[in-house]
Design brief:
By secondary structure, the protein is an all-alpha fold. The chain starts with 17 loop residues before the first helix and ends in a 9-residue tail after the last helix.
């Protein structure tokens, strides 16, 4: 049975149709056909180039704030206070 024939097996909340699945598959195939878009193994040359990159102190503080805020959140919304 193909993925598109599994409509009956999906949950009632799943509103996607066979056309939606086909469009998603076509989009995925189009994305994978883009040269250089492979999400395969790490590129050592790119990693070496990134080693020299820096951020400002304010950017670093912002990153730390985002990480801390994410670590303290519960679920999808802000933490209950």
């Amino acid at each position: 049975m193909s993925k598109l024939e599994q409509d009956e097996a999906r949950s009632p909340e799943d509103f996607r149709t066979r056309d939606d699945f086909e469009a998603a598959e076509q989009g995925r195939a189009r994305d994978e056909a883009v040269a250089g878009a492979d999400a395969g193994p790490d590129d050592p040359e790119a990693s070496r180039a990134a080693d020299g990159l820096t951020v400002t102190e304010s950017e670093a503080a912002s990153y730390r704030e985002h990480v801390e805020r994410g670590a303290n959140q519960q679920g999808e919304g802000a933490p209950v206070v």
